[in-house]
Amino acid sequence: MQRILVGIKRVVDYNVRIRVKPDGSGVVTDGVKMSVNPFDEIALEEALRIKERGAAQEVVVATVGPADTQQQLRTALAMGADRALHVQAEGVVEPLMAARVLLKLIEREQPFLVILGKQAIDDDNGQTGQVLAALWNRPQATYASKIELNGNTARVTREVDSGLETLEIDLPAVITTDLRLNVPRYVKLPDIMKAKKKPLDTLSLSALGVEPRQQLKLVRFEPPPQRQKGVKVKDAAELVEALKKKGLL
Amino acid sequence: MSSKILIVAEHEGGRLNPSTAKCVSCARAVSGAEITVVVCAADAAAVAAQAAQLQGVSRVLTLENPVNAHALAAVLGPQIAALAAPYNLILGPSTTFGKDLMARISGLLDAPQVSDIMAIENERRFRRPIYAGNAILTVEAAAEGTVVGTVRIASFEAAPGGGSAPIERADVDVPLPTHTRFVSVSAVKSDRPDLQTAKRVISGGRALGSADGFKILYSLADKIGAAVGASRAAVDAGYAPNEMQVGQTGKIIAPELYMAIGISGAIQHLTGIKDARTIVAINKDSEAPIFEVADFGLIGDLFEVIPEIERLLG
After folding, report:
1. How many domains are there within chain B?
2. Distance of CA B110 to CAs A29, A215, A241, B71, B113, Å?
3. Are residues B147 and B291 in the same domain?
4. Which residues face B130 on adjacent strands?
5. Structural domain of B160
6. B14 and B138 share a domain?
7. Which has the least CB within 10 A, A36, B42, B60, B251?
8. B contacts of A215 (beta carbons < 8 Å)
9. Cβ contacts (< 8 Å) between B133 and chain A: which residues?
10. Are residues B127 and B227 in the same domain?
11. pLDDT digits (tens, 9 = 90+) for A62-103
12. What are the tens digits of pLDDT across the range B60-109?
């Protein structure tokens, strides 16, 4: 079966204003709205569109994390994924660990394409896709803004610092999504009901043969330095004068 | 223990990208570090010569191979991983080049990566922004083993020139994949300064209304020698190309002067400009969050204010 595997991460919703805990041990997540990482929604949307075009038969979503990450898998099922895999893990899941888990899922599911978000908006690491491609010894096409599948290859347009780069990659491969790949669909209420009946399997790390490992110790969280609030100027002339005075113009 | 640091050079068209000199500054924060820069290219001579001039660099290695003509992470990764053994720390810039490549190296070496290093306390301890810069995290790696890192280039000044490090040819014997092939790159060539290194940047938001609306920014930018950036909203709307996007998922910049024109100032945008020395905001909406961080705020119609500024500058 032509299958696409999509990674889903539960993150603090992008509209939430983050607060660091006073003791520096983390950020406040109690009572805070959690969502699917926006780049992962884009990854899932792309997989669904590929399936709807007839170029794939099944879209499987997967996450690694504690029990409540299942809420985000249900959201993904409501968006249209066929089934979900929840790999249970407590504590910090570093990119190397997430990639090792995903590699095990790839061995089980044999996808022809793995689509991940280019980064999660909580830790902003931006590593898992590339690490996974390295461990899998397969191509990576990061920061995708366009994906064209042609049989056993894909042409991927990437958003790079200098403009747009196009790569041709052999499949299977890992692609990570950038913002402009697509606009994810909204979930409709009947789909949420339907999603409750879709299969969601729970797996343990030990069943997959992955040892938990954390290599970077999180020493301290701090709020960022705040910029001083500035002044209002009344018109262009006052602005130009102020900037000239500071030697900026 | 003396630290050995390997820096992967970024370059284009025979020119070393300034991001590499910033990585060297980051590495120099580790006292007594021995810094090696590696240049992967089809023909590395010109770039290696530029890297050799950066102060603090003790040695430049070249990995010359026709397949290195384009920076493909799947092709460069195994070559750099093959050189990695002697180094405690392997750094690249947190640009799309470095972010794509360094994490591949992290996977190949099974070594943890610290992304977006903004400060280096010692070769094991780093500070980095998370949550779009709304928190700063200090992380520490175990005493042993290689660490891979990407350097947040807005956090470091470029290392000065004037050095003369020896240049050596490195040879690695590793199988290189052919499963990833470069097709093309469409880069808009511009005479304006590079967005990531410009001293002055003028950015536009959705209030510019169209690609045509951006023309008044280009005109002012050319008058004051500024680069032009854009908010995500403006890029999404097609007013400006993707390489102009400034913010959490676009470019992180630290110019001396940043002018945000018709940009409301979503947190994802603000994280890209926090290190700017002076921020100017021009917006019709007096409630726009951009005014919270602006050193100079002007409430007004940008289509009147921008031409007026240009006129005042003569």
Report:
1. 2
2. 30, 10, 55, 21, 9
3. no
4. B135
5. 4-169
6. yes
7. B42
8. 112, 141-142, 145
9. 224
10. no
11. 999 999 999 999 999 999 999 999 999 999 999 999 999 999
12. 999 999 999 999 999 999 999 999 999 999 999 999 999 999 999 999 99
